[in-house]
Amino acid sequence: MWWRSPSFILDREQQQQNDSVPPNPESLFLSSPPPSMADSLQNPKSNISAYYQTRAAHHAVVTSDWLAQAQAAVGSHTDDEESSGIDGRAAATDEDGGGGGGKAFSVIDEFNSWRKQPDLAEAVAAIFALAAVIRASQATTMMELEIELKKASDSLKSWDTTSISLTAGCDLFMRYVTRTSALEYEDFNSAKSRLIERAEKFGEISCKARRIIAMLSQDFIFDGCTILVHGFSRVVLEVLKTAAQNKKLFRVFCTEGRPDRTGLRLSNELAKLDVPVKLLIDSAVAYTMDEVDMVFVGADGVVESGGIINMMGTYQIALVAHSMNKPVYVAAESYKFARLYPLDQKDMGPALRPIDFGVPIPSKVEVETSARDYTPPQYLTLLFTDLGVLTPSVVSDELIQLYL
Amino acid sequence: MPDTQALVNDFLNQLKKRKIEGSQATAKQTAELLRSVISQTRVPYTNQAGALIDSVKAVGERLIAANPVELAVGNIVRRVLHIIREEDVSLTTAAMAGLNLSAVSDDEDDADRDDRPVLSAAAVAAASRSTLRPPSLQTLLEDVPDSAAVPHTSSSGGDSEGKSKSADKSSRSRKLKHDVIEAVNELIQDINTCHEQIAEQAVEHIHQNEVILTLGSSRTVLEFLCAAKEKKRSFRVFVAEGAPRYQGHLLAKELVARGLQTTLITDSAVFAMISRVNMVIVGAHAVMANGGVIAPVGLNMVALAAQKHAVPFVVLAGSHKLCPLYPHNPEVLLNELRSPSELLDFGEFSDCMDFGSGNGAPLLHVVNPTFDYVPPKLVSLFITDTGGHNPSYMYRLIADYYSADDLVVQRRPTSGN
Fold first, then answer.
1. A193 neighbourhood in chain B, CB within 8 Å
2. Is Cytoplasm tagged as a keyword (chain A) (predicted)?
3. What's the total number of domains in chain A?
4. Which residues span the domain enclosing B8?
5. Active-site annotation holds for A300
6. How large is the ipTM?
7. Could you tell me if residue B353 is inside a domain?
């Protein structure tokens, strides 16, 4: 019995399998390839996107055993979905087996070890992992190194297709490597060491980006204002922290951010800074919007249209704010700019996550488990990035300049 | 030195007393003043650009503080600072390229950047060029953000010091000053000719038998309309009178004198007439970085009327009006309250202004703001001396004209004082 997933991506994946194998769960389970090599590379919980696991680990109040419980609660249909997940992933890993992934050294392991550090953004972890590739590489020419890096970054990207900032980080670094600046060094070793050095500086760059954003946004926070914040974002926290340090008087409304309850964490942090905070349930946004002076959100990714991809609920908050003429400000580092152009909500592969409803959900009831949504640019007022305060249309300009 | 000081003080007085009408005149006088400041500044051998920047900044801060509402002053100060940086960098790269080509042993160059492996001249040039540009994704991974984030002195200081050792010092210092003054002259020229530049584009926008609406009076608009008339376009102009100063009356008079079919209406009739109008063309006081417009009072209403009837709302602005700042509460902070005498006759209302009655304050208050803020979404098109632009594109022009380091220049004195 096939479980119909609410997201078309999974449907498509299942359809592909329908074509190849008879729709019999048992034979399907047998036909899934032996997880020898895939085992180390694949996600343990293929039902939940890797992107989401990082978020859960870094931002959320929920713990990993809670995740496991939720996993169990999702119930009977998991195994066939799981097998489909394995199938898709194994195919991906097979392809890159010859490259950086197949050797003793694995980009993905490297990436995962970097990713564990709570203060490190995903794009930074990706760039660190790619730097490790350069260090381990035995290439003797720039071309070889580039090919090796390309393979590594492709395998990283295909390992977790749901993470936008991972893809953006890989692309940005690849662009830097292929761009002229690196080729201007006369000998290969100095070019190589320069690349490694710059990649390692990237963590610093990302921290500095946060500080720049916090400084830029100070002008926009005035005394006596009320700020609505959705989700937990390190940049937004930095912005509010700086504002509090500058002795600005402001009040923050935090949405609860179900089901990860990211808002709880943010309100916790803000309470420590003695900022007046009020927690709202997610559905109280429109109710409180008339008291709000501005909306501040972070972003998982900024896409080419100037819109953002962020935690589920950002879109509706932006819509409410727009209809009540309140500015919506986005704080995002520029390495989150991604070459995507989603036209609607379903254009990106959904990042799935478990949702705890507190009571068992009958198996016939569908659950929307996507973790994020797309907010089109016309609902955003300004983007605060380390490149400056930008209108949404500038984003595509920057991206075109980089990738032209 | 003392005579520039006198000039500066004189100009400060004029700004404080609001003696200078119009942002074009202000911009021009500011540029001329800064030019004389630059020519009077003694430049040391090392870090000449830094010395020039410091002296321009010192004067600029006071000018901006004298009339913070007149954004053109700040714009010109920043433009001049940007010019100095630009000229310095172009001299530096020229010297650098010369060094690398001529000298086989480029020891100074190595000592200068010993932290890096050997760089080719092109790389050096590229690196120094990009210090001026606003930070972008391209430069994110390169060294540049570091130097851009640090305050201005380091960006020019270290570089020029290294160079002047090898290059002929005195000629170089004179060269920099000379180049800067040349560029400022060009800027003044640009300010002078911006009306003509904008008016040249008139025929592309005004078509036969159209009806144009404007409010108040702006020289840019006048020239724009006349330029279209001269090219044998026949069209009609509705002029809203622009209370309380009624400058629309003057504009109407001028237009009639130049043979244009003109209709004068009251400001409150804008909504009634807008359905007949094909295009609204207005001038601006300043254009902010987000594409919002600080404009004579009453224009927000016109913009809303235009939006309601889907009439294009076109703003004409010379490039000296482009301001790199974002507006924060512009209706209050970037506004000026003028004398109530423009609204009413003191003789007639003197009894309402009686301070003796009640709690000592008069019951009648008169508020006479000068400017309106028109949000960017109400503007269809900006026409500047470089062509027509979308509101969301204004940031690009601003990035061309100003360097990122200078944006804060003006913020510091206001917090310091």
1. 117
2. yes
3. 3
4. 2-192
5. yes
6. 0.76
7. no
Chain A's closest residue to B139, CA to CA, is A176
Answer yes or no: do B141 and A198 touch at CB < 8 A: yes
Which of A212, A382, A388 is nearest residue B134 as measured by Cβ atoms?
A388
CATH number at residue B283: 3.40.50.10470
DSSP readout, A260-320?
TTHHHHHHHHHHHTT--EEEE-GGGHHHHGGG-SEEEE--SEE-TTS-EEEETTHHHHHHH
Distance CA B89, CA B102 (A): 20
Cβ of B328 under 8 Å from any chain A Cβ?
Answer: yes
Each residue's pLDDT tens digit, B269-305: 999 999 999 999 999 999 999 999 999 999 999 999 9
Residue-number span of the structural domain to which A203 is assigned = 107-210
- pLDDT, one tens digit per residue, over A11-66 is 444 445 544 444 444 444 444 444 444 444 444 445 667 766 766 666 655 445 55
Residue A331 lies in a domain: yes
**The pair of three-digit structure tokens given for residue B363, joined into one six-digit string:** 């019951």
The distance from CA B89 to its chain's CA centroid, rounded to whole angstroms, is 23
- Dihedral (CA of B241, B247, B248, B250) sign: positive
CB contact under 8 A, B141 and A172: yes
Token pair 């400017």 is at which residue? B371
Same domain, B28 and B172: yes
Domain end (from A98, A119, A141): A98
Instruction: Please report, rounded to a whole number, the percentage of residues in chain A having pLDDT higher than 90.
Output: 32
**Contact between residue A302 and residue A335 where contact means Cβ atoms under 8 Å apart:** no
List, in sequence order, the alpha helices (H) in B139-168: 144-149, 152-166
